[in-house]
Amino acid sequence: MTAATTTPLEPPCPDCQVGIGKAHIEGCDVARCLATGLQRLGHSESCRCPRDVWTGRWPGESECLEFGWMLGPDLPDLNRLLTTAAWDPVAHRWTRPGHQDTTAEGAPR
Q1: Residue 60: how many CB atoms within 10 A of its CB?
Q2: What is the reported pTM?
Q3: Are 76 and 58 in contact (CB under 8 A)?
Q4: Domain count, the chain
Q5: Is 36 inside a domain boundary?
Q6: Which residues constitute the domain of residue 32?
Q7: Is residue 98 situated within a structural domain?
Q8: pLDDT at position 74, please?
Q9: What long-range pairs does 62-69 form, CB within 8 A, spacing at least 24?
Q10: pLDDT tens figures, 2-59
Q11: Residue 107: CB partners within 8 Å, gap ≥ 6?
């Protein structure tokens, strides 16, 4: 990853204003459901996923950088990520198509 393809960290979440490393506040538009990878706002109340933590980057941005899915130096292709990648609910991250996912114990399936 080069400096030209990394975006600076945003210290507070752009919606709920929590700092890096802090859990998003309920109702935050940026927070993700860690069971599905989709927006947490409005997800099922029966979902017992842990609360998402603000990393300083928009959800999915790190994976787009890792996979080389960028539309420009500072513009991750989040649409490609959501339509092509698979969510790993154990690792709480997007994985490339065909990438081995893991079991709850962290071993490959």
Answers
A1: 22
A2: 0.79
A3: yes
A4: 1
A5: yes
A6: 1-90
A7: no
A8: 85
A9: 62/93, 63/93, 63/94, 63/95, 65/1, 65/5, 65/6, 66/1, 67/96
A10: 434 567 888 899 999 999 999 999 899 999 999 999 999 888 888 888 999 999 999 9
A11: none
- Calculate the alpha carbon distances from 68 to 2, 79, 103 in Å: 11, 13, 26
Residue located via tokens 């962290």: 106
Q: Is residue 108 part of a domain?
A: no
Return d(Cα 37, Cα 82) in angstroms, integer: 9
Q: What is the DSSP string of 62-101?
A: HHHHHHT-EEETTEE-HHHHHHHSEEETTTTEEE-TT---
Residue whose tokens read 């927006």: 39
pLDDT tens readout for residues 61-93 = 999 999 999 998 889 999 999 999 999 999 999
- Please report the pLDDT score of residue 45 as a whole number: 81
Q: What are the tokens at 50?
A: 């842990």
